């Protein structure tokens, strides 16, 4: 049975879809932010691989085909932005200022915490792209000499936390302006957070989609500068 599963090119693909569907069902039933479909699917897949003692390579042979959809899925986020183009033109200064300050806050906080916990430069660089989309973050980590696999893990974790906590944080700090919500969510938690922004509203989703691209571009430049601070 184990050999059959391990050798199947469809195994990784199917187990990923099943895990995500379980997450969707749990979230729909319990209506709790903790039951994030991506988080549930990660826990499900890891548990499945450990129980049946299946190595990661066997899983990834099929799951890698899902990764090919990451870039076109990210590009599709431009559609809601196009629909809110007038709003973008009227607020572009505030939007760009918010994204820029969000990126600098993220990088500066990583710098401060890395110094506090005496991280090595490699570990520090690994964390720098945590708030941008995986497609860009991998390139930044590779170029600067970080640990790419850990970078991917931190990007996913950041996105999941943003997805789970976005609404709560907005309520705590009384952020009610849709544009501000979208910019904050997209800048801090990339595509996974943007999924939550789209659930909140069309404007939030559009601004979050914009923030993903702009924050990614700013981080590419700023991370190369911050990399020299440790």
From TrEMBL:
It is found in: Membrane. It holds the Pfam family LrgB. One of its GO terms (cellular component) is membrane. The chain crosses the membrane at residues 6-26, 33-53, 65-82, 94-114, 144-166, 206-227. Keywords: Membrane, Transmembrane, Transmembrane helix. The keyword Cell inner membrane does not apply. InterPro entries: CidB/LrgB. It is a multi-pass membrane protein. Its main location: membrane. It comes from the Bacteria. This is LrgB family protein. The lineage of its organism: Bacteria, Bacillati, Bacillota, Clostridia, Lachnospirales.
């Amino acid at each position: 049975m184990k050999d059959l599963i391990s050798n199947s090119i469809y195994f990784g693909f199917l187990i990923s879809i099943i895990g995500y569907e379980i997450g969707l069902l749990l979230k729909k039933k319990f209506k709790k932010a903790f039951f994030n479909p991506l988080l549930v699917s990660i826990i499900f897949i890891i548990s499945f691989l450990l129980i049946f003692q299946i190595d990661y390579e066997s899983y990834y042979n099929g799951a890698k085909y899902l990764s090919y959809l990451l870039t076109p899925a990210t590009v599709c986020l431009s559609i809601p932005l196009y629909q809110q183009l007038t709003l973008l033109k009227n607020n572009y200064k505030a939007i760009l200022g918010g994204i820029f300050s969000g990126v600098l806050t993220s990088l500066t906080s990583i710098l401060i915490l890395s110094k506090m916990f005496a991280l090595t430069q490699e570990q520090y660089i690994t964390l720098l792209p945590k708030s941008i989309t995986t497609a860009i973050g991998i390139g930044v980590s590779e170029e600067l000499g970080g640990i790419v696999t850990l970078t991917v893990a931190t990007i996913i974790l950041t996105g999941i936390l943003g997805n789970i906590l976005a609404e709560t944080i907005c309520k705590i700090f009384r952020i009610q302006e849709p544009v501000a919500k979208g910019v904050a969510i997209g800048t801090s938690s990339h595509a996974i957070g943007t999924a939550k922004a789209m659930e909140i509203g069309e404007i939030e989703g559009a601004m979050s989609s914009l923030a993903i691209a702009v924050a990614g571009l700013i981080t590419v430049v700023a991370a190369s500068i911050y990399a020299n601070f440790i």
